């Protein structure tokens, strides 16, 4: 399952693509990797009905049966028929998560004695802006024992069957990906019956394997304006 992705884009690109009204994330990184438990930008509909970029922590609340003294969260969501997830299927709990590439573990490329490397996927070699179909929720609880109970805004995103590009590397799942403003609009506003079809694999001709995103040099880093 996807537990790492990269965002290399601009704040203005996300605002324009999603028709968001404001940025509450204070987002100024030129390029960054996101791991479980990290904060990252999402786009959601706020209480006043305006779309906004917000910053949330990756990992939705786990089903209670799997929680002991802390909850590290669930990053990927597949079974939307589960009673645990049904509460967040409505548009007020949906969000879209901007990304430009995502990683899946690639055990077949592992070198003996080394770690399992990642394979990276993007829309094409230029790594266009795309979005995961996600959910978000406010939550109060313990993510790390040393931090104690805190209040959070959490997010996770849907997964689905892998397409022919992902399946040779990761046979179980791939993220549900939105590639057009119309799909983003539907995910953020439509009823679940109208939006649920977006939990589907991206066509194989819309995804390619790419090398890891190069880290910007200090003199190349700029603010996302």
TrEMBL record:
Family under the similarity heading: Belongs to the SOS response-associated peptidase family.
Top-level class of the enzyme under EC nomenclature: hydrolase
Gene3D superfamilies from the UniProt entry: 3.90.1680.20
InterPro entries assigned to the protein according to its UniProt record, in alphabetical order: SRAP, SRAP-like
Protein name, per record: Abasic site processing protein
Keyword Oxidoreductase (UniProt): no
Lineage: superkingdom: Bacteria
Keywords: Covalent protein-DNA linkage, DNA damage, DNA-binding, Hydrolase, Lyase, Protease
Enzyme Commission code: 3.4.-.-
